[in-house]
Give the backbone structure.
Amino acid sequence: TGKLQLRTSIMPEISAITLEIFGDLRKLYRTRNECYVATCSSTGVMEGAIRNLVKKKVLCTVCGSFSELEYKVATKNGKAAEAYVVPSGHEIDPDEVDRRLSTGAFDAITVVHSETSTGVLNDIDAIAKVVRKYDNVMLIVDVVSSLGGAPVDVDAWGADLAFAGTQKCLAMPPGLCTFAISERAFRRAESISDRGHYFDFLSYRKMGEKGQIPATTAISLLLGLHMQLKRILAETLEGRWARHAAMAQEVRSRVGEYFPLFPKSKAMTPSESVFANDRNISVSALVDAVKKKGKLFGNGYGDLKEKTLRIGHMGDIRIEHVHRFLQLFFDAMRELGHAK
């Protein structure tokens, strides 16, 4: 009885907090669309997007490992899918997107904004202008490592679904995924009978009206997200973007004296810097040496392991933290005989 009384007394408060989170997410995504939270990793909402929004065939733009994951998710869910793949380190070409969509074969497209396996930041503005030429095509944008660190503008893009987990630029533990969804997307979901259960977007809308989330909710993470969104908005989005850009510039100017940047694109994600290992050093040995000093950075991801090194500078990290990391990074480089 005591547990039941506790549950009924806390539910109205949690519902109010949840509705406030949805409102703050609209500010973060810069949208008038509905925003929700799912108890899962970003891959969960990625799968939900495929199940709810792809009726005919999806064009998956692939510029690295994480955008390739969207293609794998589509095919594993039995959806007709085509991968448009660019060489590693390159960005998605809007003209090629236009050429493929003009065939009329697709009713959805997936794009990763910030591809953290390569460091590329795709031009969603340009891609979205192309997609908007085709009324029946759903635009699905992965903003996992850009939301809160780079400008994300769902309404300007006309994105039907944009999603991001909490563990990147939002500086939260993993376990929640936020998403913004358009009215067009809801109508598409209504037309698909096998859209699944856990990630049925219509269930999120129905329960979201009452400040609830389908299935068991990670209350502790939800409360943390409520507080963190207030901190992010207090900093201002413009201030947060500027801080991420400044950290990226510092890392690239310093580490760039030893390694060239890997991306070949016009734009790079401000949440991390990816460098090409043109010196053929042991990246894993350097990672271990820096780790012993109490700091972490990443080896190349997937087939880029040992070919690149990835330095993250996102979330609540500040320029003074970057300076301390770089000091230890170069200390480790000298110890391994790679720097002056």
In short: Residues 97 and 127 are 7 Å apart (CA to CA).
